[in-house]
């Protein structure tokens, strides 16, 4: 996308999912509005031409429900209820209505639809105001999936940010003015005030990750504890007793739960905690991969490194090279792989053991679950584990994974 499509400074993005962008000022901010495919094609009625059919592909004005009703000989109410999925409309009638809508290029009027359904078809995603967040490839992968899922469900994503201490105020504003139907929360922390507020407000939301209150809300997550318990057991089964674990920031639950998985493996095997030494990273993860790998290698006995991210594992290779260590020969590497599309891992396929799970798929699942909750507010929250796949390096014995 051309750089001039984006304003240099903005605090709010309204991201739609089809067609070219156009840039509009909104108060002191900017919004990026995607023109929906098809908005530009209008039905034109040739001047002076009489047509029996009140709906024409050549009409200058957009097709309305009233036009469809006149064309099909049905009431406006029947057309509206058919388009909005009410079950009191017969299947044959519904098929006629949708067929005519497709034929004449009918597009629902969002404002009118909102009055009928009491829904905006907007989803809010509030981010911490952090310069590093928007260049983090993990976030970009999730966003790609979220946008794809929103497009499929015909929803728009309202992406905005504020400082961490003011984020709840943004949620309060959206809940108060009814401008969104639901919320996506990512990077949860234990006792997260965003989750507490939305539970109290009884608004639909979904969390990428989970907390100890996870049974009370919808979430999508990977099996962080199970995956890292298995990776730890794999390294130990291959004879490693001096392991470095380069983890994320344990203020966030994903990293804390991964630590729990490592600790569980040691407890199950009856090994002391010092078998695995923990190093915690903050953003940027790439820099942390090099720096923390260098620190870990100060312990000359380290024979294996477990990474929380393939990005950190790749960046750590410079430190290994500098220390004269060779993955697959005198040190074993195992890592979580979030399937970052920009990161080519093919050079490491025989050197690293991966547990692979798609953040992009997680993003799509987040939106699908949230749309389900928005459109069925009395439904029970779903908790979804994104599948993981183990790809074990050829120099490792993977027997323990089958036990």
Automatic annotation (TrEMBL):
PROSITE patterns: HTH_LACI_2. InterPro entries: HTH_LacI, Lambda_DNA-bd_dom_sf, Peripla_BP/Lac1_sug-bd_dom, Peripla_BP_I. SMART domains: HTH_LACI (SM00354). One of its GO terms (molecular function) is transcription cis-regulatory region binding. It holds the Pfam family LacI. Residues 63-117 form the HTH lacI-type domain. Keywords: DNA-binding, Transcription, Transcription regulation. This is HTH lacI-type domain-containing protein.
